[in-house]
């Protein structure tokens, strides 16, 4: 309440000072050069005070908007747990919007009855306009990942959620609603989506709609596969047949690095692309691969390479397989050895007889 009173009252005080000086001060009515200089100085001070007050108010409102946007983004891209079903996780994102953490990248990892399911995606564009699309895709994935037994069914749920969101946006942005023409028409919206499923044995299944393939980190970094992806969601309808691609196994100690195209498309001042694969190889050279270490190393190298914020959002997600066979406990080993000892004793007795 006090802040609101100050916000409204200070401009009135500055205005009252200027009017009082002009009407009540005899110096303001003189025509001499000195009187004019003093009058100009008074009005300059009043104007400067109003400008600084307006600037402070605008900066405060901008800070509040950014805090709200960042909170919304953190709700959508909630922090991932450090471990999910024996997989160590780490994720990071770098927004292209200066001074904000809002972007169009999305990711999620959930443990389901069908295995650990992962989504990585990239909405066309960035900033506040991308939040609605991110919310539609992520919300659909978090439900479908548990409900649907097969990856193709999960992908079709995402497609329907995106189509429904775009239809609602098209109605809201129609000229009849009185809004300004959108910078990004709905007809040009699309989302790249990568779906992965990692079973209990480390087997990797994938469906890819226009997204960069992840890299397998095992001493070096290499693409998980070189298969051609499907078109991004929103560009064309999904085909009737969606064959799931088997991508081998993620062995204990190995890691996967999923990323958006903002990582590999980043350029320096000379136009040279960021060497993503070489940077991943350097980060994974010494086993075991640390997901957090890979995140820190990659973003540090990316910022050194570009010398500024990238022109597109850049997200990175690293998963390491920590599933190892648990050695038997001493009690289990003793129980397992007791029948063998009893059998050996019976055989010795038989030989004596």
TrEMBL record:
Q: Where is the composition biased (Basic and acidic residues)?
A: 344-353
Q: Where is this region: Disordered?
A: 333-353
Transmembrane stretches, start-end: 34-54
User: Which keywords does the record carry?
Assistant: Hydrolase, Membrane, Transmembrane, Transmembrane helix
Please name one Pfam family that this protein belongs to.
Answer: SpoIIE
Task: State the Gene Ontology terms under molecular function.
Answer: phosphatase activity
Describe the location of the PPM-type phosphatase domain by residue ranges. Answer: 84-321
Supply the name of the protein. Answer: Protein phosphatase
The superkingdom of the source organism is: Bacteria
